[in-house]
Design brief:
22 strands, 26% strand, six-stranded parallel beta sheet, alpha/beta
């Protein structure tokens, strides 16, 4: 696949890194010569210095042969125009634009980016996607990661196995016998820096990160089974009143009115604006690194501080300082992948990588076959995939015990007619079922083949 990426910043770099690793033909455009030099020196991609929305620059990058354009510059208008030009002049089939300004995304303007109005196939709003992830992490504090699939009926939960985890050293197949009515399946294990598909005979160990696919209503019970019964935070401090912080606060106000919220925002005008737009949230103007401001926010009584500023350093240091002053736990937004490995030693309880959210949305449209949703884990070492089974799929019609699934793939749940099924040896996948599975990166091509439309379908 030939892909053009407009924007060589952190998000563009992350997308280019992932797509180039999969042997795609990737070209990157950016106005910054230094960013283009950095990306071409470290990745197997072509770089072009120029404006991503200019026709001559797109032509040099090979737009006439491109299968996809992904516009992720810092400017929404550039992203929009780049997609429009790619469509009008070069007939690029798939056009993806990152949209950050919330004014474009208001519900009353929902038709703005429909195909009859604009030549954009997919819009990605990192702020909203990250905001939703933050809210899920707040709702399920025992989960290291949580993502929903199949009309929100199925969840993938990443759970750390602590020393008091009741299910360690127990073969996974026994869990099915011990809890027959629990709609949950361990599909992957991250251990000693490596991710692997889980098998029935495997046993979880202390320190493992277990990836579990379960029915949404069974998430809390699943967390409890693993020894995680942390209480949901009722007193929350949000550091950073940008789009993400405001979205999180507004949603909590609407759905959890008993939660006491305080926001710390360093920009005076922004602090004044969000204080007018939020009803029950206390907004403080100041820095999350200022001990006096943290104390004004009653940090010593807080259950959780969520750091969502644009600075990784402020997010990390502010969260560490908050815990030292008595805050029970922290959740930190970290953009730089180089900082992910050191956060635990610094006292960071949980973190969110916004790049991973954006890259996962892009992968959904790169994947061949009837792939409905993709979420990459462990920096792309594996993926949780939701795919629709077609009549021609080799999975359809045969019981699970007779399926010869390729190595590196484990099915976690099936969504059929609004119901969630946990697969067993007798389960047969039917056409139009949605299958949620865990796959290592090496096995993704096999997943695409299993859910691809074959010529016999027509």
């Amino acid at each position: 696949m030939k892909v053009i990426i407009c924007g060589a910043g952190q998000v563009g770099y992350g997308i280019a890194e992932r797509l180039s690793q999969e042997d795609n033909d990737v070209s990157v455009i950016d106005t910054s010569a230094s960013l283009i030099n950095a990306i071409t020196e470290t990745l197997d991609v072509r770089g072009y210095v120029g404006h991503g929305a200019h026709p001559d620059v797109l032509a040099k990058a090979g737009a006439e042969q491109a299968d996809m354009i992904i516009a992720v510059t810092l400017y929404d208008e550039v992203n929009i125009v780049a997609c429009e030009v790619a469509h009008a002049l070069f007939s690029v089939p798939t056009k993806i634009a990152r949209i950050r300004a919330q004014s474009y995304l208001q519900p009353e303007y929902a038709d703005l980016f429909s195909r009859q109005n604009m030549s954009i196939d997919v819009t990605i709003s990192p702020e909203i996607e990250v905001g939703k992830m933050v809210l899920r992490r707040i709702s399920f504090p025992g989960a290291t990661d949580i993502v929903r699939f199949a009309e929100d009926s199925i969840a993938m939960v990443a759970i750390e196995c602590m020393e008091d985890c009741p299910v360690i050293n127990t073969p996974l197949q026994q869990l099915s016998h011990l809890f027959p009515d629990l709609m949950a399946t361990v599909v992957g294990i991250f251990r000693d820096g490596r991710v692997a598909v889980a098998h029935s005979a495997d046993q979880l160990q202390v320190g493992d990160l277990a990836y579990v696919i379960c029915q949404r209503e069974h998430v809390r019970r699943t967390l409890g089974l693993f020894g995680h019964e942390e209480q949901e935070a009722r007193r929350i401090i949000i550091a950073g009143g940008g789009n993400i912080g405001q979205y999180v606060a507004r949603t909590i106000e609407e759905h959890q009115p008993k939660t006491r919220l305080k926001i710390i925002e360093s920009d005076r005008d922004r602090a004044a604006l969000i204080s007018e737009q939020l009803r029950n949230t206390v907004v403080l103007h100041g820095s999350a690194l200022d001990q006096n401001i943290l104390q004004q926010a009653d940090v010593q009584d807080a259950d959780l501080i969520v750091s969502l500023t644009n600075s990784d350093q402020i997010n990390i240091l502010g969260s560490v300082m908050a815990k030292s002053l008595g805050c029970k736990s922290n959740l930190v937004l970290i953009n730089s992948s180089s900082l992910n490995q050191v956060t635990e030693s610094l006292g960071i309880d949980a973190q969110i990588n916004p790049r991973a959210v954006t890259i996962s949305r892009v992968l959904q449209h790169v994947r061949k076959g009837r792939i409905r949703s993709v979420y990459a884990v462990q920096q792309g070492s594996a993926e949780v995939i939701e795919a629709e089974a077609l009549e021609t799929s080799p999975l359809v019609g045969r019981p699970f015990r007779e399926l010869d699934l390729p190595d590196g793939i484990r099915v976690g749940a099936i969504y059929r007619g609004g119901a969630v099924l946990r697969p067993n040896g007798d389960t047969r996948i039917k056409a139009r079922d949605r299958v949620v599975l865990f796959s290592t990166t090496q096995a993704v091509r096999n997943v695409e083949q299993m859910f691809r439309v074959s010529i016999q379908y027509f």
